[in-house]
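BUG: 3D viewer hangs when loading the predicted structure for this chain

Environment: internal workstation, default settings.
Expected: structure renders.
Actual: progress bar stalls at 90%.

Input used:
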Amino acid sequence: MTDFIFMVKDSSYMFVTGPDVVKTVTNEVVTQEELGGAVTHTTKSGVADVAFENDIDALMATREFFDFLPLSNRHDIPERPTDDAWDRIEDSLDTLVPPSATTPYDMHELIRKVADEGDFFELQPAHAANIIIGFIRIEGRTVGVVANQPMVLAGCLDINSSKKAARFVRFCDAFDIPILTFVDVPGFLPGTDQEHNGIIKHGAKLLFAYAEATVPKITVITRKAYGGAYDVMASKHLRGDLNYAWPTAEIAVMGAKGAVEIIFRDEKGDPAKIAERTREYEQRFANPFVAASKGFIDEVIMPHSTRRRVALGLRKLRDKQLENPWKKHDNIPL
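Structure tokens produced before the viewer hung:
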């Protein structure tokens, strides 16, 4: 029931029924650590957020973590002085996205280069690592970050990552913490396992969380933003306040090759024609300008100016007032 749980390796345990009961009822032989230890809960179940090596690390991290949080939902988010210039230019971000669309890169680099002093407190780093969540500061004020991680499952959304991000977005909304979203998502993870376990309903949790959130929402699309996954990641259609894209962004229903094979399925037997159609599709749609012309992107920005644009956006949105229609409570797709 608590918002966040920190555990210590080899000394913290949580389970509904202990190893002895499990052995009696199901005949499974399992250790405390395997059943409900810190590593289990921070990798497999996602019940806990971070596993630390010892008590001292856990207590020091807790103190650091508290600095990001307001005292309650009626207090302002904390602000602390910083010497990091709000308009700092990061030229290295211009080459962060590789020339090949299939080459991964580490989204942590972008997050740390946008944050004050490169300080990023990541939550659940070992669980559903294809999405990154955590807190940074910009101009000394706390900001919640949600970002796809191209290095894990190519940044696809799946059941676990949707639930992980949805809960974090709802926490930020509950405590008036602005949300910054970095998008590089090729779609939802395909497969019978995902479909049979309810990716439609679990993916809808993230959609619901973003749509319901009334805090400032800024989105930056770095590379791929395809189909329903684009929509779910704090798009304009989910009341995103400021939606930016880098020149490397591709906003489309799907990748060029897949789209061409569906649209021009009659020409599938002619590889030369398909290749030509793919090139044509890429020239027309593998850029953010079509989406910008339709108003789904507010501006195409240079990667090196990302921190400056986000900081300005947060200033503009500081006094944002938005109320959802009254209801007894929402009915999130649990």
